[in-house]
Design goal:
The protein is built from eleven helices and eleven strands. The radius of gyration is 18 Å and the shape is globular. It binds ligand LHLMWEOZ and zinc ion. The ligand O=C(O)C[C@@H](O)[C@H](O)C(=O)COP(=O)(O)O binds next to β2, β3 and β11. It is an enzyme of class 4 (lyase).
């Protein structure tokens, strides 16, 4: 199966109240772990690739790995640019084979964010590629760039509704209290904002910063209208902890397969648990 746009599964997610996981791809082992977990769960999923990860893996390898995963699994998989910073980056990804892009204009004023996102939607739609937009500022560390809680700001429902109406994005990330990276305490999620936006627009709300959010908070977010959830840090932590454990037990190991296999298994377990929690098992 070729890579698909998020519109292959997000409308179904919104209608049937489940969420599709965006699991960030940082290297081959991440891609294998995510794909194996999704195959066992028969779940659609999204490979999220940040600009930093793209620089690390290289465009050709990234697209080739995602295409190989789609071909091997037969699952509906979207290859999605995560937090794309410009029209140019989005177009470069689409030309290389990405089936979905996020344009993150959240650091611009509302008018400029709308205008820039509209341009991306117009170009992407012509090529059958789905688009995610973002409104409000999500706290934490995203692709090595840190936004402290003081500068994080919640999305305003009326602005989010207007943003959707004017841009026509396929899903909308809004700041509702989650943050990128692990939490010190528990995140305070504003379900009322999710619900107000969900009731007024036909596309799902996206929850960024999915790592470390308690299961019940995830369930309540999905019930309020979240249809796509991004997870990266939990996989990074699982991967690195597994490697640390192997090397701590045997410092003379030098074959990467000896520590990357447990790392891959640990990430697969994380993804499988998330897929079950999100309710997307057997939705492929
Ligand atoms: O940091 C990245 O490279 C990706 C994240 O921004 C992703 O979009 C996301 O929201 C995942 O959040 P996390 O699970 O808290 O890492
Ligand atoms: Zn994010």
């Amino acid at each position: 199966m070729p890579l698909v746009s998020m519109n292959e599964f997000l409308p179904k997610a919104k209608a049937n109240k489940f969420a599709v996981g965006q699991f960030n791809m940082n290297n081959l082992e991440f891609a294998q772990a995510i794909t194996e977990a999704a195959m066992e769960e028969k779940s659609p999923f999204i490979f999220g690739v940040s600009e930093g990860a793209l620089k690390y893996m290289g465009m050709e390898y990234t697209v080739a790995i995602a295409e190989a995963a789609a071909k091997k699994s037969g699952l509906p998989i979207a290859l999605h640019l995560d937090h794309g910073s410009s029209f140019e980056v989005a177009m470069k990804c689409i030309r290389a084979g990405f089936s979905s892009v996020m344009f993150d204009g959240s650091h611009y004023g509302l008018e400029e964010n709308i205008a820039l996102t509209k341009e991306v939607v117009k170009a992407a739609r012509a090529m059958g590629v789905s688009v995610e937009g973002e409104l409000g500022t999500i706290g934490g560390v995203e692709d090595d760039i840190s936004v402290d809680e003081e500068h994080a700001s919640l999305a305003k429902p009326e602005e989010a509704i207007r943003f959707y109406e004017e841009t026509g994005v396929d899903c909308l990330a809004i700041a509702v209290g989650t943050a990128h990276g692990m939490y010190k305490g528990e995140p305070k999620i504003h379900y009322d904002i999710i619900q107000k936006v969900t009731d007024a627009i036909p596309v799902p709300v996206v929850l960024h910063g999915g790592s470390g959010v308690p299961d019940e908070a995830i369930r309540l977010s999905i019930a309020a209208g979240v249809g796509k959830i991004n997870v990266n840090t939990e996989n990074q932590v699982a991967c690195t902890n597994a490697i640390r454990e192997v090397l701590a037990a045997n410092g003379s190991v030098y074959d990467p397969r000896k520590y990357l296999t447990p790392a891959r298994n640990a990430m697969k377990a994380v993804v499988q648990e998330k897929i079950r929690l999100f309710g997307s098992s057997n939705q492929a």
